[in-house]
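ugh ok fine here u go
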Amino acid sequence: MSKRKLSRQQRWRIEKIQAERARRAEQLDARDVDRLAAGEYGPEQRGRVIAHFGRTLDVAPEGGGDAVRCHLRANLEGLVTGDRVIWRAARDGSGVVVARAERDNVLERPDARGQLKPVAANIDQILIVFAVEPAPHANLIDRYLVAGEATGIAPVLVLNKIDLLPEDGGELRELLGRYEALGYPVVTTTTAREGGLAALLARLAGRTSVFVGQSGVGKSSLIDRLLPDEELRIGTLSKDSRKGTHTTTTARLYRLPASAGGELIDSPGIREFGLVHLDEQQVAEGFIEFHDHLGRCRFRDCRHRHEPGCALLAAVERGEIHPERFASYRRIVDTLDES
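structure:
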């Protein structure tokens, strides 16, 4: 479908609106320059963005203390929660962000148009939460791992509700062992008994983390327990759906209690994590045991189905790749073909 042509008057109106927006931004920036010259802003200091609201954001000073509501210099765009910034405090208690430090990484998710949009930065680990009930499926875990690997941020598996786990662990314990053998950290937790969060707290200490996982696995319950003083974080909750009443999916960074340490970035928009933005090659790279075999197939365009000389199929036959993991990979790729 061809794009609709704009009339001269429509183009003029659009250009006028854009020019007005640019003028307002320049005036805002000019006021900052005047205030800086007049000594109304203090010296530059480091901080971290803990929440983002359009052209304003909350910045936590690096040395501690309450967050300060700051606005952005006009030449700064694309800041997200977790960004490290340089800012200056004003006499009236506000501030201005003047620069962004280099990012270690950025977590992106597709928007409604399928375009990747940054939602958080400088994350140490993605905690993939699943539970004894509803029973986890290996393919679902694999999908989250592939999505996590695509970000370049270390994934950690968190098995919740272990109070419901049989004493011998059953098939689920065997499944966990398979992922541990691949090198993935596995943490078990429960909110149903005293000390059930100890292993999780140890994993969170000193790190910036985000939680992802399907509905019903207890992410909200875990976060509520980890942040006991943040009752307004989600707002009024439905006891049945556990869905918040937020009208925004803006991510927010929370500092865990001093006894635990670490930081948690939470947002309803982050917790659901998909693969719609990945291609077949990226999916294959998301299976870490494939890495030594990718690029070694006889044919450069090998799709790892029935082609002769396929390095992945040969690795499965030799026992170097678990057949269920390879089957899971094939199911994921098939869903890409269907979309």
